[in-house]
Amino acid sequence: MIRRDRALRLPGGEILEEAIVEALVPPIRRLTRAEVFSHSHLALDLKRIHSHPSTGVHTHEFSELVVVLRGTGIHVTPGGEYPIGAGDAFVLHGDEAHGYMNTEDLDLVNILFSLEELGLPRADISALPGFHVLFTLEPKYRRRDRFESRLRLSPEKLHHVAGLIDGLEKELVRRDPGWAFAATAYFMLIVSDLSRFYSHAEEPAVQPLLRLGRVVSHMERHFADAVSLDDLARVGCLSRRTLTRVFRNAFGCSPIEYLTRLRINHAMALLQDADLSITEIAFQVGFRDSNHFSRRFRAITGTSPREFRRSATLPH
User: Fold this and answer.
1) Beta strands at 63-77 and 98-113: parallel, antiparallel or unpaired
2) What residue spans of the chain are helical by DSSP H?
3) Quick one: DSSP state of residue 113?
């Protein structure tokens, strides 16, 4: 377990102050984007580690998709120490400190990425509950679930994903013309297949997160429809109160607030199309009143739809 107490009581009762404790406890290393992605404009890289040794705890300025290919070990995080083995796949975001210990024949792949910088087309990936579980819900609930809700691939599925990883690695290493496009395509295939596998996982520990993932997916698919809290509760097989509580814990807002932000995000994209009026856009993203749309748009973005359109369509 990682411990960084601000003071430490010695066996004799003497208390070491924060400055002394900091000197005794090595600082957590932070891997920067510049260290990892300095070789190219693409915010995507892959590190394959054979016989992974025990490592110190670190954080990073990017996200990391870990796929365990072989062996066993203990994954160390501030929330606890968890056994891992072949077939485990999980996502770590930049502020999550982690390391490994008690490793035995541990082979794994770290796919390092920044979704924001990659600017990948989301298309319909958000319709997969497993996508939301993999990237948002499981990382947030890892401590509560003792890592039991992580994705575990069967040998057949692991073999399939390993083949895609091989393709990604070749593109990143060889860098033949078109490599960045092809590498991005391989990464998207890995993400989509893992999301599909997660969406159909049958382990009991995964089901609570999948129910919440299904709610988010329903909103992604039906954001323009009249969606009520009762509708979402039915989709997730949860009570209204439970859905609101767990949703707020995961996303920092209520389901209806999330839905409103989702509609505004779609409206921001449509506002760059001069052929649609603001009223038409309001109705197209699910608002039934253009004045209400404008008020919510300003509350969330800090500007009006008209002002946003003007600034978005100005020549740069």
Assistant:
1) antiparallel
2) 18-24, 33-37, 115-118, 129-132, 138-145, 155-174, 179-199, 207-222, 229-236, 240-251, 255-270, 278-284, 290-301, 305-313
3) E
Three-state DSSP class for residue 42: coil
Q: What is the pTM of this model?
A: 0.83
Are 217 and 127 in contact by the 8 Å Cβ rule? The answer is yes
CA triplet 126, 223, 124: central angle to 5 degrees? Answer: 25
Helices 229-236 and 255-270 meet at what angle, rounded to 10?
A: 110
Check: CB of residue 7 under 8 Å from CB of residue 21. Answer: yes
Between the alpha carbon of residue 19 and those of residues 5, 13, 14, the distances in Å are: 11, 18, 15
How are beta strands 80-85 and 151-152 bridged, if at all? unpaired
Q: Which two tokens stand for residue 299?
A: 């509350």
What Rg, from alpha-carbon coordinates, does the chain have?
A: 23
Q: How far apart are CA 15 and CA 21, in angstroms?
A: 10
Model confidence pLDDT, tens digit, residues 29-71: 887 877 888 667 899 999 999 999 998 888 988 999 999 999 9
